[in-house]
Write a structure and sequence with these properties.
3 helices; 5 strands; globular; alpha/beta; five-stranded mixed sheet; Nucleotidyltransferase, domain 5
Length: about 140
């Protein structure tokens, strides 16, 4: 079972469970700036909705960018932590590869195959977010 996570926009949390090249469950939230409050609860909910346990996940797929700085960072950090703690592989997907289910499934099929053929161990390296531009850091008011 693959858990797909997309937090590339400030108003988006998109989760999908994928089995045998088919989306078998999905949840989406379109609340502005709510990723930190909602993401872990939504992951728990999508897994429970399918009557699964977290240990049933075999791979995590995360949209690594480009995207909104804080939203993307939260999703990537969560995906990295899940993959590390479960000792499962993690793969990255570009924002353009997650536009619809057909494009996503095609990209995942290729990336999972490439990962399996090039990896000797079950765990991948850490995914680094690709923001698309430098963060806009403002100076504090004095």
């Amino acid at each position: 079972m693959i858990l797909f996570i997309n937090t590339s926009q400030t108003d988006l949390i998109q989760l999908k469970l994928i089995k045998n090249d088919e989306v078998v469950g999905q949840l989406e939230s379109r609340e502005e700036y709510k990723q930190s409050e909602l993401l872990l609860g939504m992951i728990d909910k999508i897994i429970k909705n399918q009557r699964l346990k977290i240990k049933d996940l075999k791979l995590v797929a995360i949209v690594s960018g480009p995207g909104a700085f804080s939203a993307l960072r939260l999703g990537v950090a969560t995906a990295n932590a899940l993959a590390w703690s479960l000792k499962i592989p993690i793969i990255e997907v570009k924002t353009s590869e997650a536009e619809d289910d057909e494009t996503l499934l095609k990209a995942l099929k290729e990336k999972v195959f490439n990962h399996q053929s090039s990896s000797n161990n079950h765990q991948s390296s850490v995914i680094i977010p690709k923001y698309g531009k430098e963060p806009n850091i403002t100076e504090s008011k004095k």
